[in-house]
Structure to design on (309 residues):
């Protein structure tokens, strides 16, 4: 991807209505790899006692980041849709910290793209969640 | 032998609805997505009314896959918590005044969550129901399915594992 394509992809992803509602911003995208940040937001709390973000918001972040990695792959035709997504939640994200997802499209066929993703907060050595996903590949 | 008269129906309904409302309205993220729950006896149905901010791909347009996953996860965790708390709600062990004041018992935590996307989520209301396939002392397995216009044509389903709260506090 050249700089213009990267900028176009970044703008497209950040303009998706639900991505905008979550306040997602694209840090990096290109060659089947994407990194997206979700800032801490009290609206996304799942446990009011602790202020920990709901797992569902982490799922939405992982799904967006996985899809972004797929569309940025050189062999991808453009759009994509999620076929399956599995997420393991290792620990609660620390309240007040943003969550960053990093996704890699590690294999792609004419029909299916395979993705691995990790989500971390400020403590980048201990992931909050990991995910594996499969996505559709559109014929370009 | 004198049998205790059954509780008046409105007392039962008020207790159950107040408990469910306390469980759902205490979570900001559930309000953020606009999810509500419909109750028939102990059976719950999650409702996700359509909203523009739930859209992922504006070109189709389609509901964001992350929203679909979150809707299934919320339905699964509320249904699991509801069935776990049911006896304490019915027996009065769980005080309504505590629930209404936001003093909720500890709720199950998601361990893992796997979503199958069966069809495109259309820009309209969605519904979901969950079934607790096993609820043990430490772990629970839950399956949930979501549909839109036609119950026989689900657009997504999930299976998930949860860590149950320790009953010794």
């Amino acid at each position: 991807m050249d700089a213009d394509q990267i900028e176009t992809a970044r703008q497209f992803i950040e303009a998706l209505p639900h991505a905008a509602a979550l306040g997602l911003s694209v840090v990096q995208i290109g060659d089947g790899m994407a990194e997206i940040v979700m800032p801490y937001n009290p609206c996304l709390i799942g446990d009011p006692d602790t202020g920990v973000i709901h797992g569902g918001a982490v799922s939405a972040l992982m799904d967006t980041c996985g899809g972004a990695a797929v569309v940025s792959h050189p062999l991808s035709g453009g759009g994509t849709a999620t076929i399956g997504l599995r997420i393991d939640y290792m620990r609660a994200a620390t309240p007040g910290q943003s969550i960053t997802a990093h996704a890699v499209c590690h294999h792609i066929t004419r029909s299916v793209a395979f993705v691995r993703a990790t989500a971390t907060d400020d403590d980048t050595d201990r992931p909050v969640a990991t995910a594996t996903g499969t996505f559709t590949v559109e014929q370009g | 032998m004198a049998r205790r008269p059954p509780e008046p129906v409105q007392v039962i309904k008020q207790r159950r609805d107040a408990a469910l409302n306390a469980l759902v309205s205490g979570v900001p993220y559930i309000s953020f997505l606009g999810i509500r729950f419909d109750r028939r006896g102990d059976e719950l149905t999650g409702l996700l009314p359509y909203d523009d901010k739930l859209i992922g791909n504006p070109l189709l347009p389609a509901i964001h896959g992350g929203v679909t996953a979150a809707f299934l996860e919320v339905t699964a965790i509320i249904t699991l918590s509801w069935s776990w708390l049911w006896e304490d709600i019915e027996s009065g062990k769980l005080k309504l005044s505590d629930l209404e004041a936001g003093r909720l018992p500890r709720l199950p935590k998601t361990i893992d969550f796997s979503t199958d996307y069966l069809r495109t989520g259309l820009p309209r209301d969605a519904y979901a129901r969950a079934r607790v396939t096993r609820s043990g002392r430490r772990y629970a397995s839950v399956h949930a399915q979501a549909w839109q216009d036609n119950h026989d044509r689900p657009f997504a389903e999930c299976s998930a594992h949860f860590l149950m709260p320790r009953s010794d506090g």
